[in-house]
Design goal:
64% of the residues lie in helices and 13% in strands. By secondary structure, the protein is an alpha/beta fold. It comes from Thermogemmatispora tikiterensis.
């Protein structure tokens, strides 16, 4: 499957040139927009692999649009601009832009910029997923530890005996250890009412 791209630039000739370059290089342009807000709406609807947009556009500039797309985790954004001044670069970094190309656009720079942008975005998403997974594991461990402590206190069990009870209930009921531990804690709360 070719990489699906939305391009946004307020200059139709620039969009047409960029579309030609992308098409020649094997990318699939699935949408075009002339302003930031339209680019955001189009990206929400079409869910592209990448959005390439100019910074200076009417209604909403490319950096503000990039920030929305990044926050909503819709697609990575590659910015194109004729302006390479430091304040714009800083704003782009803060918005979560994954790459930045200064015009005039050279065809030889497009594919590498896109591939780097996609790689960075995929790395970010993988790290985000790993962080969520680790957070879930930590929460599970906390709940299991609390339930284990409760069983040890209430029934005079050793730590390993309490753990095995939770583990056995998990296997017998085809529930996760976290679900069993949460049930133990909930039952205790109800009994204390």
């Amino acid at each position: 499957m070719p990489t699906r791209v939305i391009i946004a630039d307020d200059e139709p000739i620039q969009r047409m040139d960029l579309k030609d370059v992308l098409t020649k290089q094997g990318y699939l342009v699935i949408g075009e927009a002339g302003d930031g807000q339209s680019a955001v709406n189009l990206a929400r609807e079409l869910r592209p692999d990448l959005v390439i947009m100019d910074i200076r556009m009417p209604d909403m500039d490319g950096i503000a649009a990039a920030e929305i797309l990044t926050q909503e985790r819709i697609a990575p954004v590659l910015l194109l601009t004729a302006f390479g001044d430091q304040p714009l670069v800083e704003r782009a970094k803060q918005a979560g832009v994954v790459n930045y190309i200064v015009k005039p656009l050279r065809e030889s720079e497009v594919a590498p910029a896109i591939e780097v942008a996609l790689a960075r975005y995929n790395e970010f998403r993988a790290m985000e997923g790993k962080a969520k997974e680790l957070s879930e594991q930590l929460e599970t461990r906390k709940v299991v530890e609390r339930a284990k402590g409760l069983l040890m206190q209430r029934y005079g069990l050793s730590e390993s005996e309490a753990f095995r009870k939770i583990q056995k209930a998990s296997m017998n009921n085809r529930k996760s250890m976290r679900e069993v531990a949460e049930a133990i804690l909930l039952t205790n709360e109800i009994n204390e009412m």
